[in-house]
Every structure is written in C-alpha cells, then in structure tokens.
Amino acid sequence: MRNCLLIQLREEEICLGQSTQLFANASGGTGNYSYSWSSDPIGFSSNQANPIVNPEITTTYYVEVNDGYNTVTGNITITVNPLPVIDCPEYGPFCQGDPAIVFEETGVFTFNGDVVTGFDPVEAGEYILVYTETNTFGCEASCEFVIVVNPLPEFDCPEYGPFCQGNPAIVFEETGVFTLNGDVVTGFDPVAAGEYNFVYTETNAFGCEASCEFVIVVNPLPTVNAGPNLTIPYGASVTISGASASGIEPLSYFWSPLSAFIDNTILNPTTINLTESAIYTLTVTDGNGCSNEDQMEIIITVEELSVNPNASNEEICLGQSTQLFANASGGTGNYSYSWSSDPIGFSSNQANPIVNPEITTTYYVEVNDGYNTATGNITITVNPLPVIDCPEYGPFCQGDPAIVFEETGVFTLNGDVVTGFDPVEAGEYILVYTETNTFGCEASCEFVIVVNPLPEFDCPEYGPFCQGNPAIVFEETGVFTLNGDVVTGFDPVEAGEYNLVYTETNAFGCEASCEFVIVVNPLPEFDCPEYGPFCQGDPAIVFEETGVFTFNGDVVTGFDPVAAGEYILVYTETNAFGCEASCEFVIVVNPLPVIDCPEYGPLCQGDPAIVFDETGVFTLNGDVVTGFDPVAAGDYTLVYTETNAFGCEASCEFVIVVNPLPVIDCPNMDLCHPPLFRNLEYLHPVMW
Length: 688
Known about the structure:
- The chain has no helices and 65 strands.
- By secondary structure, it is mostly beta strands.
- The strands form 20 sheets. The protein has a 5-stranded mixed sheet, with no helix packed on it. The protein has a 5-stranded mixed sheet with strand order 16-22-21-18-19, with no helix packed on it. It has a 5-stranded mixed sheet with strand order 38-44-43-40-41, with no helix packed on it.
- It starts with 5 loop residues before the first strand and ends in a 29-residue tail after the last strand.
- Mean pLDDT is 92; it is low at 669-688.
C-alpha cells in the first residue's frame, strides 16, 4: 500500500510592522516530520513547523518537509502593505466654555478609548486624543496629540451704588473692561434715576475672557412742593397746608429757618406769630437717603377788620340745616366770634356755625381781633315741605312683567332715579319716593317691593334610551308636558328626539319651567351571519363581523369545527349610541368518513408492480397514484383519502417498505489520488 506525503500553504497579506505565523500543514507519509524554512529575500531560516515571521517587505517563504523517506516542498508569499502617512491633527488651545468643534479629518479620533467626532471644551485641562487613519490596504497608523483647555479668569463681580439721582460721577477702580449697552465705559454718572445693567470683563494670561453682569441702581429724588406763597396779617400764625411730598417711605421733613416754626420736622407745620415776610425752604429725605427741596414765601400784610356774613344756603326747607360764615378779614387775624338771632334762642362763638331754624330767622355776628370789633347779619328763609301718600307695589314673582310707576314724584333705588320696576331678581327692594313743591322743598318716604323667588330645581334628565326600552314613570313632583299634553312618564317606542317641558310651583305661587330633550336612539340594523356547513376537523375560522358572538353564553371570536353537530350561536351588534340588537344562527359540522388504512408490503427491490384495491384516492409525494412499483429500495410514505356524502374527507398515512437486494464488492486496485485544491494552494504528492 502507498501513502502520499502532502503540504498545503496559503498566501497572506499583512501590514508593515505586523507579524504572522506560517503553517507547513504537512500530511501523509510516516507522520514523523522534520522542517526546513528559508526566504526570498534571504535572511530567514527555521526548523519549526509553524514559525512566526515579521517581514518588512513582501517575502516568499520556502519549506521542505521530510518524513524520513521522502521530501516535499512548498512556498508561500507574505505581502507586506505600507502604513498610511498621516499629519497629526492640531487643535487649540481653547478657553474653557468655548463652542464645541467638529473634527475635519477623515480618520478616527478616540479619547479614553471612546470614538469621538469632535471636542467640547467644557472643563479646563489637557486632553490626550489618539488619531488613526486606515489606508486602502486596511493598514492603520495612529498618533497622539494634546488639546489644551485654558481656565477662565476668576474674579469678584464689582458692586457700586445704590446712588441718588444727581450724585457725583464715579470712576471704576477695577482693571477689567466695563460696558454699558455695548459701549465701553470707565465710570458712571448717576444723572437719571433707573437701573443700569453693566457687563464687567477680565482677560487672563491665556487670553481667556470671563464676564459678569451687575446692576447700578440710581434712586429717584423725592418730589417736593413747598406749597403756594401765603399772605397773612401782621403778627398772625399760619399752617402751611399746601405743602406736599412723595417718594420712598419713610420720608423725613426739615423746614428752615427752623426758628420760624413750632415744629419744623413735619410736612405741614404751623409758624409762630410772624411780623415780617420771608422765604422758607422745605427739605425732604426719603427712605433711600435721597434729598430734594423747594421754597415758598409768607407775605405779611395789614388790613382793616371787617365782617361779611353769608350762608351755604340763605333759603332752606323745613328740617334742613345751613352753615353760617362770618367771613372776617383784616385786622390781626386773631378773631373771636359772638352769634345771636331774631327770634331769640340761638348763640355761638364759632366762626362758621351750623343752624336749622324752623321759621325764617335773622342771625347777628360780632367779630373781635383783640383790638377792634366788626358786626354783620344774614336772614335765613324757611319754606314748608309738601304732604305725600307713600306708594304701594307688589308682591311680584321673579320674572313678572316690568311695571311703570303712576305717581308724579321721583322714585329712586339705590340712589338712582327710576320710572318703574322690573322684578328680574328675587329679593326685597327699598325704594324712596320724593315729591317737590313750588318752593323746591322735598318730602320723601321709603317703601318695599317684594319679589318672590321662582322655585329652584334641577331640570330633569332622562335617557338617552334605546328604541324599545321599558317605559318609565317620572319621579319629580312637578308637571311634565309633551306637545302641550300633560304626561306622567315616557315610553321609548320610536327612535327620535322628544322635547318635554317640566314646571314647578312654590309656596309663593311662583312658577318656573325648563325644557329638556329625551333622546331615543335607533337599534342597529344588520344581516345575521351565515357560516358553514363545515367538515369535522376543518381549520378554525375567525368571525369577520364587528359585533359580538356568544356560544352557550360565552363570548367567542371564531369557531373550530372539532366535533360534528349543530351549534347555535348568538350574534349581537352595538351601534354608536350603545343600543344592541341580536340574532341566532346555526353552524353545521358534518362528520368525517370512517376508513381502514391500507397495508401493503414489505416488498423486495424489483418485485412486480401492484394495483391498489381501495375506492379512495392514493397519493405519493403529492401525486395521485393507483398502484406501486418497487423499483428502488426505501420507505415510501403514501396518503390514502376517502370522501363521504357530505363532501368531507378523511386521510391516513401508511408506509410501503422496499428492502434492498444484497450488494457485492468487486476487488480493485488501491490508488493514491491527490485531491484538487483551490487557487493559491500548493500540493506535492509523493508515492511509495
């Protein structure tokens, strides 16, 4: 017997700098191999079966294998592809917080082992990245580069103010740059009140900038009005009542010269007795410490003492009052008063007393300024009141028709003049009726109009119903009407919308009504489903209709004709109104035919063909056959099918075994046939 000594080698490609392992792959022969490797270009040798090599250029390796009797040879070429040549990227340096960048190179960037496509300089520091390019040979070259992110400058944001409007201008002390509304400034002048938003920016040694915003508040000055100039008699005192001020509380006041005032720290001070004209200054300081001032003048005059009495009304109606005014002027201004009357009975020492005489009366006044006396008088005429009957209206029900008053006088409600009354809202309404006589004198009375409330109830709600639902009886105590007829309930016989009116009457005899609609929705309309008949064991079906199927009270979505029989199902549809309609239908499942499965064989390969005796249909591999010819050995699976009067089929499978004939081995020579190899494989047979 002869054996073949073979070796198999495959060519391979690597990248410069990589290594690969050679495999002699010897087979056959005695199995006791020795190896001898060499190379072209020369420089490599090895006696290992599978040496590791790392050539710098494309190299062919040769191997000789000896099994102690024979030698075979083979070779393999290792192609060494060049690495890509790359320019290592350069990015930065950046300042912390600069916008993120996207790398422009076509290679792959990694940071801490993760692939990245750009860089976001969020935090200061030095970041080591690796850039890798791959050429068309699939060879990679990489480089490391550092992206530097410089820190931003750190500083305290400036604080200035608050100032008062008009304070002196300031110069900023910091070394950075200040901007206001985008303009660079070196200081601030608080000319106008308001809030001013500044940006302060510093730049560090790396050229990185950081900014902050701060607000300078300029508070407005308080508004000050010392009041109009005043004229007073010699030796008189006056209160400066016309002075006013506003601003941020609390406000403090200071009048000067302070010697002219009893208390110069209040807004409206009283002077001492003054003997000469002067200008007085009011200074106001607000809660922010901002001050403003204004001036007024008090002029001293000398006039003869006089009196000119008058009244707020010189003609009044009985029961009214009026105020008397002495109207003294001139003199020192330090007046005392003495009032009397005719008819007698009234006296007063007030300057402007109030009187309410029952008849026409003359009032006399004497005025003294400490040096002189002046007199005067005024007559007050008293007219009679009209005599009236107070009106009566009501009671009404809420919503009754409005009325117009018949009387000739004036009616008022809540102070407003009215000519009638509309009982829109329930309640008690107090009205005043007034008549005026020819003297213009009025007499009034109050009267009450009562508006009783309507009954309050919830408008009934019934339905919606489905057509044919049971009739209902209304539960409410009021009266129901339908098309003007009184009804006590409702029978939803026909589909449609029915407008009913419900009315209740309360203890005041007031009625209220509401309308409501009873909706009777129609039942769904559909064709009752039809399925079947089926044969026992047919595939299960899924019902196509959208309604609900039930069988023996259980909801089903399809039917599986497992057992023969008649099955009564109920089909129900529900429409968009929630109304249901149902129908019954029967599914018939016919029985399968009962068969005895045929039996044929076993047969021997080459036996005579047979013809089947049964009346059904035989199939082999899907083809209809009427018999069987045992030409070839094997197991043959046949299907036998019978169909009954219902058209239902039953089948069975059976196997015909064809046993093989005995096999005879004929002697022949044992030859060595080397196998075929693919491209790039080398085969070296040796026979002995």
